[in-house]
Amino acid sequence: MDYKKFRKKLGRFVGWLALKTCSLIIRVLPMRYIYAFAGGVAFLGYYIAGKQRKIALHSLSVAFGKEKSASEIEKIAKDCFSFMAKSGVEVLFFMNKPRLIDQRFSMEGKENLDRALSKGKGVILISAHFGNFPLMLAKISIAGYPTSAIMRPMRDPRTEKIFSREREKLKIKTIYSQPRNACVGGTIEALRNNELVFIPVDQNFGTAGVFVDFFGRKAATATGPVIFAQRTKAAIVPCFTIRNQDDTHRIVFEPELDMEKGSSPQETIIKNIQKITDIIECYIRRHPAEWGWIHRRWKTQEKEV
User: Fold this and answer.
1) Strand pairing of 196-200 and 147-151?
2) What is the pLDDT of residues 278-296, one digit of tens each?
């Protein structure tokens, strides 16, 4: 067997085993101890996951290198690991406790969502891998909104099976990003049924996307939300969840995006993807530790003409 493939398989198995072990521990822990447990996981993760730590520090330097000191950047990276650990522990602890999810997540700007839905064309919830977005979707579904989410399947099928089963219990429909035809069909069907479709627009999209400014640097970005909105007349509503100091959460629904028209179809797409990216950047600047800096956002570079 190829050594690299073996290492990947082994890594995924270890990850799945760690998830199962943590899940068993968290199930027997009283709620008052889960954040202490998350703190231990974050501490170990920051120093053991060297590759992810380096990516986070590099990404933060790209975004804030001219604005923040090295010590400030390191603190954000550590806080990011802490928030990710807290979110992971919360998902494992709360996923089968809808009453607690309902209690610990509040909604702001719900009138913006309801106003957009009243048009009857569906709503595209644009967001990012920001805050505890899996439980944000759970709260929205529990509140009575038919909710779907476009997601990439996890690399380990066993892990994906665990989370897809939990989403199904919470009536969150998963629309996988591949195969593309099924993704497009499932999304259009949900929007035509006047449902919500969650689309995160914050990860590197390779050469299939468009390049827009993100923290002053060009980033390859998916165009799906704008194209779906054009095709179905669905409203685009920015949506983010923010952690409070007491580890409760508030979900913020921004007003519907006012779509701009460019001089060409391509310019229209770029203009509006830039607007969406600006909103995401604004939230990250306000709450930098909430975003997943371990992702190589600027991995794909625009080819020089």
Assistant:
1) parallel
2) 999 999 999 999 999 999 9
Give the CATH number for residue 165.
3.40.1130
229-258: b (≥16 Cβ within 10 Å) or e: beebebbbbbbbbbbeeeeebbbbbbebbe
Residue pair 130/90 in contact by the 8 Å Cβ criterion? no
Asked if residue 302 is part of any domain, the answer here is no
Residue ranges making up the domain that contains 165: 3-290
Q: How many domains does the chain have?
A: 1
Q: Are 284 and 130 in contact (CB under 8 A)?
A: yes
Helices (H), the chain: 3-28, 34-48, 50-64, 70-94, 98-104, 110-117, 133-142, 157-169, 180-192, 224-232, 265-286
Residue % of the chain over a pLDDT of 70:
94
Peptide bond into 179 cis (omega under 30): yes
Q: Is residue 37 part of a domain?
A: yes
How far CA 54 is from CA of 23, 48, 295, in Å, comes to 27, 11, 11
Query: What is the pTM (predicted TM-score) of this model?
Result: 0.92
Altogether, the residues listed in the chain come to a count of 305
Q: Is residue 281 included in any domain, yes or no? A: yes
Residue with tokens 């952690």: 243
Q: What does the pLDDT read at residue 263?
A: 92
pLDDT tens-digit readout, 23-76: 778 888 888 899 999 999 999 999 999 999 999 999 999 999 899 999 999 999
Residue 295 lies in a domain: no
